[in-house]
Amino acid sequence: xxxxxxxxxxxxxxxxxxxxxxxxxxxxxxxxxxxxxxxxxxxxxxxxxxxxxxxxxxxxxxxxxxxxxxxxxxxxxxxxxxxxxxxxxxxxxxxxxxxxxxxxxxxxxxxxxxxxxxxxxxxxxxxxxxxxxxxxxxxxxxxxxxxxxxxxxxxxxxxxxxxxxxxxxxxxxxxxxxxxxxxxxxxxxxxxxxxxxxxxxxxxxxxxxxxxxxxxxxxxxxxxxxxxxxxxxxxxxxxxxxxxxxxxxxxxxxxxxxxxxxxxxxxxxxxxxxxxxxxxxxxxxxxxxxxxxxxxxxxxxxxxxxxxxxxxxxxxxxxxxxxxxxxxxxxxxxxxxxxxxxxxxxxxxxxxxxxxxxxxxxxxxxxxxxxxxxxxxxxxxxxxxxxxxxxxxxxxxxxxxxxxxxxxxxxxxxxxxxxxxxxxxxxxxxxxxxxxxxxxxxxxxxxxxxxxx
Length: 453
Ligand code: SF4
Fold this sequence. Notes:
The protein is α/β, with parallel strands linked by helices. The protein has helices spanning 2-8, 31-45, 79-96, 118-129, 152-161, 175-180, 187-200, 218-231, 245-248, 263-279, 296-302, 343-351, 365-380, 392-401, 403-407, 428-435; strands spanning 49-56, 58-59, 71-72, 102-110, 140-145, 165-171, 204-211, 235-240, 283-285, 289-291, 307-309, 312-314, 321-324, 329-331, 335-339, 357-362, 382-384, 411-414, 417-420. Helix 4 packs parallel to helix 5 (152-161). The site of iron/sulfur cluster has 11 residues, from loops.
């Protein structure tokens, strides 16, 4: 394994989109072209279903490992103007789209969604849905919660509206790691929020852990997983810490490169956590995710119905996603659009009655085909080349590029099928890179992507 890690631990995309963001071509994507792209989706799939992601960017203090688009402030007067802007953006979509979108899932991400008051969060969803509550069986509603500032009132208000899923940002329980990443939160505090959410009736609680953090040791991850197992969340994300301070700015400069576990140690942290989770009944789902058998995510994985978008793995496979809020990314399957990355720029564009898009990408036919293969690999660890495709020579090129992974027993090709083996799962991003047409002519830069393992 050590040899394989040495060989394949190269900078590479995480494939939350294909083409990946550094290769998007439309720096000036117009509003009309973007609306047209969503409409193409509607006509092609004959469906008005959409997922909605709302980015709530404020946090009270900076965690130095953070790679999210956020704004640090303790001033809560920012809440109202920001939410008004989000609602304005949604109303512009409703006005400009030639069909009435049906929301099948909605997720609050951040930043810290629980920065906002219970009342403000409740008003936001009531306005979006134009309803006082929603049947949780028909729409999946979820939010990210910071254990240090999630109140009973927020949990109750959102539950009463129809939310049944939340994810708690944990990272690691070691005080030394917490100090290094400037995020101090006790197990007792996490337990309090977790237990209260269970008591209220939340049916899917996820804990987000991170491996590869500064000063993280094997003992630290063992203790973190043991504490997590004590609370038995339905889902666990075990994210790889992506160290890209040149992209993420000052937030990732609070510690030294020497504080980071080296690649073999980092992989050992993951493998140990995975082993402990699997012994305790969790199944590995897609990349970096685990779930108990009863959870919808585990069922979707078994039934090959898992889907992945900018919100992460999901069970409700809508082919388009509308992202609201600063920096949020929307996806029409045939295109992407990203909102302005500053709160001020985002609000200013909306004040001019414009969708606050600052860049995007419209996919070619080949890109649409390739994104399908990459999505399959990330969700099911296998894919199958289309026999009716116009791009057969490219399929052959991809098979050729997979030869190293095949020789190392990480991938198998059976006719048109490409299958990632059990041993190959940690290297699924490397497999996707063989499909990535943008990497053909560009050297893979450490400055664009984090390492794959
Ligand atoms: S990790 Fe979460 S709480 Fe911390 S700065 Fe980033 S977005 Fe804010």
